[in-house]
Design a protein that fits this description.
This protein is an alpha+beta fold. Helix content is 31%, strand content 28%. It has 2 domains: 129 residues, NADH Oxidase (3-Layer(aba) Sandwich), CATH 3.40.109; 58 residues, no CATH class. A hairpin with a 3-residue loop joins strand 6 and strand 7. The longest helix is centred in the N-terminal third of the chain and has 15 residues.
Amino acid sequence: MFVILQKTNAENDLLASVATRLMSTPGVISYWVVPNAYKQEIMRLETEANRQLGLPGMRIVNNGIKDVLERDYVIMILHSPDLRHAPEPIIVICDEEQRVVGREVWERSEVERLSKDPNSIFLGKNLVLLHDALTQAKGKTLTFVYKALRFPELDEIHGIQNVISVTLTFQVHSLLSRKAGWDADDPNLGTVLIGFNKCA
């Protein structure tokens, strides 16, 4: 575990409370408090990685990364597959008018329901496209969006607010994992960035 040095006692107490809650969350293996000096570089690298991963007719945007990095504190967690799924879809696909044409689904009952819906087209096991919305968007650029999501395990911690989290591209996950001293090549380990503000 890594903690920024030269913080006030109050800040250290706040971060200690957050760390205690994170380390008691099933699936969380370790954490790293991201230095403020890294934020601009993370934003640049994530934006560039998404640009390189884009396909003809589809661009990839991590809308959540900017919101997370603008928080007072950013913590990256290392987690195993035991970490619960995010409380909302991590990925949505939108057309140029911001209409949803696809989204991630993970709840078994929802996957089963949509698999019987003739309007649903599955890409893999957990990404569903809507046939009618795709038809409306034909010939237009689609946007594959990573969203900022709640991280409810931290909602009740006194002294913090506006908690959000975001998933990173594999390239940035690997780079930051190495900076934190973690195994960046283990396919069973993932990372999540969590941002939050101090209460006024």
